[in-house]
Design a protein that fits this description.
Blueprint (H helix, E strand, L loop, with lengths): L1 H24 L17 H12 L14 H14 L1 H6 L1 E5 L3 E6 L9 E6 L18 E2 L2 E3 L3 H20 L8 E6 L10 H10 L6 E4 L4 E3 L9 E8 L1 E10 L3 E2 L8 H14 L8 H10 L5 H8 L1 H13 L2 H7 L2 E8 L6 E2 L2 E10 L5 H11 L5 E9 L10 H14 L3 E7 L5 H4 L5 E4 L4 E3 L12 E3 H16 L2
Parallel strand pairs: 3-6, 3-7, 7-17, 8-18, 9-16
Antiparallel strand pairs: 1-2, 2-6, 4-5, 5-19, 8-9, 10-14, 10-15, 11-13, 12-14
This protein binds zinc ion.
Length: 479
């Protein structure tokens, strides 16, 4: 007995040694910092330009309501006035009706081109704003208005960066394409899709693209002191499914025990019982693995020893909706349909469930999940809408290194991680064409800013505009 106890004790000490050893060895991968000079930028001028850009009501209306073409054309005309040097140096082609696509010729035609893209359409106004959403007011260190953050601020910043570079006599080595798309907020079927068609028609291969989809996150992951530049290498897909339960119709004074509605209710409960399988693998693993070494001791012990603690970590990360969405395909029942009168039993009742597909899943794996969860007859499953998750771009190549080095040069001590964009962007389309696609808006974004995206009092700080222009200048100078 004593001998057994002794063996168990030794095994336990051995285990602690392994855990300790792994934790000590678990360090940030300190890539060699490249010495990059960051140019001075007069951010007041950028703020003025953004203020004007906001005043064009380039609104994408959901549900097919048409926008105002005149506003789009006026915006395009204004670009030439606001960015005269950029407009002179780059050839402009209008694709998809209202999407300017610029070509900035490089000195070395053997290198494959890259694409910088952003959208200038905005979502409609909701809620009570404290400022006029269309005036582009500059006050309290911010530019206020619809689209300031999402994403006329970025568009103005990269156009201004190019304008300054051209004025200084700079010409890139590789060809650079610059797109300003017209309909990202309603799916990109006109803008980003036309950009890709143009590349296809002209046999232009794009090495990598850069668009929105993440930020320099500040105070968002509480266990890390530093800001996190999450340069996202993939984005989730979208799928909506209608699940219909059937039952006998009739008058509600003579109901059967099981009705279409009660069958549907059971189906929803069954569907919600288990999440879609997921966890710390592929893109989700690289995100947390890069962040782990910067966390507190307790977290470091866990992340350094995923061979032992992975199940615990996955449980902890799944408990919060924000981190859970990084690990798996999420599902959300959103709309219900049943009888049209309160005293009529419907023959059918339906629920719409919206899935956001993790790159490891596809239409079939999601359908398999639904079927494995719902154990009932008289249920129909219909896929209404699906666009798969993007491919996962490389994060150990020159492009990612350049994007990271530029972020460290401009934002100082930031932790750069390859992340996953939870929503959909134009990059979903670009990633099907370009070799790699990256999603990163070079501005500091705090937890409170989430409410500003598509929300009221949308604004961007003048300091962020300065950083964004500096980032694009540093990035483009290295290309
Ligand atoms: Zn956007």
């Amino acid at each position: 007995m004593k001998r057994i106890l002794k063996l168990v004790g030794l095994a336990f000490i051995g285990l602690l040694c392994i855990i300790g050893f792994n934790t000590v060895r678990y360090k940030p991968n300190n890539t060699q910092r490249v010495d990059i000079t960051v140019p001075d930028v007069n951010a007041e001028i950028v703020a003025q330009k953004l203020s004007t850009a906001i005043q064009f009501k380039t609104i994408s209306h959901p549900f097919g309501e048409p926008g105002r073409p005149a506003a789009y054309q006026e915006f395009i005309d204004w670009l030439e006035i606001a960015f005269p040097n950029a407009s002179r140096a780059m050839d402009q082609t209008i694709v998809g009706g209202f999407t300017p696509l610029y070509h900035w010729k490089g000195t070395d035609s053997t290198q494959s081109p890259i694409l910088i893209s952003g959208h200038y359409d905005v979502v409609p106004i909701e809620g009570d704003w404290s400022r006029d959403p269309w005036a582009g007011e500059i006050s309290d260190g911010y530019v206020w208005g619809r689209g300031a953050l999402d994403m006329k601020g970025s568009v103005v910043s990269y156009m201004h960066a190019i304008d300054l570079l051209v004025a200084s006599g700079f010409q890139p080595q590789r060809d650079i394409y610059v797109a300003i798309t017209q309909d990202e907020e309603i799916g990109g079927a006109g803008g980003a899709a036309a950009v890709i068609s143009y590349f296809q028609d002209n046999q232009i291969e794009i090495d990598w693209s850069l668009d929105e989809g993440s930020f320099v996150l500040s105070d968002i992951i509480s266990s890390i002191d530093a800001d996190i530049a999450s340069i996202n290498v993939a984005e989730k897909g979208y799928m909506t499914v209608r699940i219909t339960a059937r039952g006998q119709g009739g008058h509600s004074s003579l109901p059967h025990r099981d009705t279409a509605v009660s069958n549907l209710a059971k189906a929803i409960v069954q569907l919600q019982e288990e999440p879609v399988a997921g966890g710390l693998t592929d893109v989700s693993a690289s995100f947390f693995d890069t962040l782990g070494p910067h966390m507190g001791l307790a977290e470091r012990v866990l992340f350094a020893n995923t061979w032992l603690f992975k199940p615990i970590l996955e449980r902890v990360l799944s408990a919060q909706n924000t981190t859970d969405a990084m690990l798996r395909t999420t599902k959300a029942p959103t709309m219900l349909e049943g009888s049209e009168a309160e005293n009529v039993l419907p023959q059918e009742a339906s629920v719409f469930v919206n899935f956001r597909l993790h790159p490891r899943d596809n239409e079939q794996t999601v359908l398999n999940h639904i079927k494995s969860q719902i154990h009932q007859d008289h249920i129909d499953i219909e896929v209404l809408d699906v666009s798969g998750a993007s491919s996962v771009s490389a994060h150990t190549n020159d492009a990612f290194e350049r994007l990271s080095a530029s972020a460290q040069a401009v934002f100082g001590d930031v932790v750069v991680v390859p992340g996953l964009t939870i929503g959909g962007t134009d990059s979903g389309r670009y990633s099907k064409y370009a070799k790699n696609s990256y999603r990163f808006m070079p501005i500091v974004f705090k937890a409170d800013d989430i409410a500003l995206l598509h929300g009221k009092d949308e604004r961007i700080s003048i300091e962020n505009l300065r950083k964004a222009v500096q980032y694009y200048m540093v990035l483009l100078r290295g290309l």
